[in-house]
């Protein structure tokens, strides 16, 4: 059973590492893998904007760099006070590492919603589509 509140808390702690001097839009994420390990990420902005990386991809990349490629769940929070959904690029990266991913968007540990990746990214482009 997934402890969503714990993942949300870790995502909230990741907000402390956000580097967002341009937008001041701080985002934190926490990934849970099939091995029951967690990895955090925060958004890292860049003056060229195109080089900015989202919190979700930082957390996923951290898991991948630790050879832990089976993502089960990701919790996402921001300082906005509202639900923060992953962008399209992050959704595509999520699809690469999980076909049945749960995405938790939260304002705090008591106020959260859970979605399946398929709900947020129907008909995603996957490895099987490369011919």
Query: How large a portion of the residues is in β-strands, by DSSP E?
Result: 15-25%
The N- to C-terminal Cα distance equals 37 Å
CATH architecture: 3-Layer(aba) Sandwich
Please, how many domains? Answer: 1
Q: What profile does the largest beta sheet have?
A: 5 strands, mixed
Q: N-to-C SSE series?
A: HEEHEHEEH
Low-confidence stretches: none
CATH superfamily: Cytidine Deaminase, domain 2
How big is the Rg?
A: 14 Å
Work out the number of β strands.
5
Spatial order of strands in the largest sheet:
2-1-3-4-5
Principal-axes geometry comes out as: globular
How does the helix and strand content classify structurally? alpha+beta
- CATH topology description: Cytidine Deaminase, domain 2
Mean pLDDT: 95
What does this structure look like?
- The model has no long low-confidence stretch (mean pLDDT 95).
- This protein is α+β, with helices and mostly antiparallel strands and 131 residues long.
- The protein has a five-stranded mixed beta sheet with strand order 2-1-3-4-5.
- The protein has one domain (4-129): Cytidine Deaminase, domain 2 (3-Layer(aba) Sandwich), CATH 3.40.140.
- It has helices at residues 4-14, 55-65, 88-97, 117-120, and strands at 27-33, 38-42, 71-78, 102-106, 112-116.
- It is 27% helix and 23% strand.
Overview features:
single chain; 131 residues; alpha+beta; Cytidine Deaminase, domain 2; five-stranded mixed sheet; 4 helices; 23% strand; globular
């Amino acid at each position: 059973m997934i402890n969503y509140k714990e993942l949300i808390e870790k995502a909230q702690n990741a907000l402390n590492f956000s580097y967002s001097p341009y937008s001041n839009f701080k985002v934190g994420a926490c990934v849970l893998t099939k091995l029951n390990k967690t990895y955090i990420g925060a958004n890292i902005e860049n003056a060229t904007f195109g080089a900015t990386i989202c919190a979700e991809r930082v957390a996923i990349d951290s898991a991948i760099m630790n050879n832990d490629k089976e993502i089960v769940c990701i919790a996402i929070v921001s300082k906005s006070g509202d639900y923060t959904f992953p962008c399209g690029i992050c959704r595509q990266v999520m699809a690469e590492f999980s076909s049945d991913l749960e995405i938790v968007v939260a304002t705090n540990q008591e106020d959260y919603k859970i979605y399946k990746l398929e709900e947020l990214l129907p008909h995603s482009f996957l490895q099987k589509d490369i011919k």
